[in-house]
Specification:
- It contains 8 helices and 7 strands.
- The protein has 259 residues and is α/β, with parallel strands linked by helices.
- The protein has one domain: NAD(P)-binding Rossmann-like Domain (Rossmann fold), CATH 3.40.50.
- α2 links the parallel β2 and β3.
- The longest helix is centred in the middle third of the chain and has 25 residues.
- The protein starts with 7 loop residues before the first strand and ends with a helix.
Length: 259
C-alpha cells in the first residue's frame, strides 16, 4: 500500500523540514525524485537517488525550467509537491511593511501558483498535486497577518485548481500543518513554542515526518477519490484547545485568588 514505485515527483523546499522528510519518505516508497530549494542541497538529491535543481519558486521561469527538467530527466511527471515557503516578519497588521508582505506572498503564493500552472502542463492524467498551506490559513493568529494571508491564498488556489484539473483526473489537495519542528520556527521564542504545545490537544508540536506521511498518502493511488481538500494536521487543535492550556489557566486563577 501507498507505493510510489515508478512515479516521478517534484518536491520544492526539499533542503530541510517537511520537504526533506517528504523526499526521504518518497524515496523509500519507490519514487523518482526531482528536488528543489533556493538553498543549494545536492546532498538530498544524492541521499534519495534523485536530482537536485536549485530553484527560486517565486520565479515563474525557474519553476517552468524545474518541471521541464523532471520530464527531460525521467520522461514524465506524476506528482508535484509545492512545499517551499517562508514565515516572514511577525507583527500587528498596523506594523506590516510593504516589502515584507510582498516577499511572503511572492514566495508562498506565487511558488504554489507557478507550481500548479507548470506542473499541470506536464503531469500525467490521474496525477496528484499537493500544496503545503498551514493551519494559519484556516484559523488566524494575531501577529501573523502576512503569513496567514499567504496560506489562505494557497487554500484558495488548491480548491480552484482541483475543480479545473478534475476533468483530467488530476487531484489537488493541500496539507495545513500546525506548529511543526522545522527551521521555519527558528525565530519563534521558547514561550511561543511552549504555548503552541499547550494549545494542542496532543500536548506537543508536530514533526516534519508526520506531515510527510500525509503528503505521501495524498501522492499515492490510495487517495484517488480525494481532491480539493485543505487537511489540518495540527495535533487536534481544529477540535478545540488542549487540556494543557485549560489546566494552566486554572492554576493561574487559583494562584491569583489565593494571593
Amino acid at each position: 500500500m501507498f507505493s510510489l514505485k515508478d512515479k516521478v515527483a517534484v518536491i520544492t523546499g526539499a533542503a530541510s523540514g517537511i520537504g526533506r522528510a517528504a523526499a526521504l519518505r518518497f524515496s523509500k516508497a519507490g519514487a523518482k525524485l526531482v528536488l528543489a530549494d533556493i538553498t543549494e542541497s545536492s546532498e538530498i538529491g544524492e541521499a534519495t537517488g534523485g536530482i537536485f535543481v536549485k530553484t527560486d519558486v517565486s520565479s515563474e521561469k525557474q519553476i517552468r525550467s524545474l518541471m521541464e527538467a523532471a520530464v527531460s530527466h525521467f520522461g514524465k511527471l506524476d506528482v508535484v509537491v509545492n512545499n517551499a515557503g517562508i514565515a516572514g516578519t511577525t507583527g500587528d497588521i498596523a506594523d506590516i511593511e510593504e516589502a515584507d508582505f510582498d516577499l511572503v506572498q511572492k514566495v508562498n503564493v506565487k511558488g504554489v501558483l507557478w507550481g500548479i500552472k507548470h506542473g499541470a502542463r506536464h503531469i500525467a492524467n490521474g496525477g496528484s498535486i499537493i500544496n503545503t498551506a498551514s493551519y494559519a490559513g484556516l484559523s488566524a493568529f494575531p501577529g501573523y497577518g502576512s503569513y496567514t494571508a499567504s496560506k489562505s491564498a494557497v487554500i484558495g488556489l488548491t480548491k480552484t485548481a482541483a475543480l479545473e484539473l478534475a476533468p483530467r483526473g488530476i487531484r489537488v489537495n493541500c496539507v495545513c500543518p500546525g506548529t511543526i519542528d522545522t527551521p521555519i520556527n527558528i525565530g519563534a521564542g521558547e514561550l511561543e513554542l511552549a504555548l503552541a504545545s499547550y494549545l494542542t490537544p496532543l500536548g506537543r508540536i508536530g514533526l516534519p515526518e508526520e506531515v510527510a506521511s500525509l503528503i505521501h498518502f495524498l501522492a499515492s493511488d490510495e487517495s484517488s477519490y480525494m481532491t480539493g481538500l485543505a487537511i489540518p494536521i495540527a495535533g487536534g487543535i481544529s477540535a478545540g484547545i488542549g487540556l494543557g492550556i485549560i489546566g494552566g489557566l486554572c492554576e493561574a486563577l487559583e494562584k491569583r485568588s489565593s494571593a
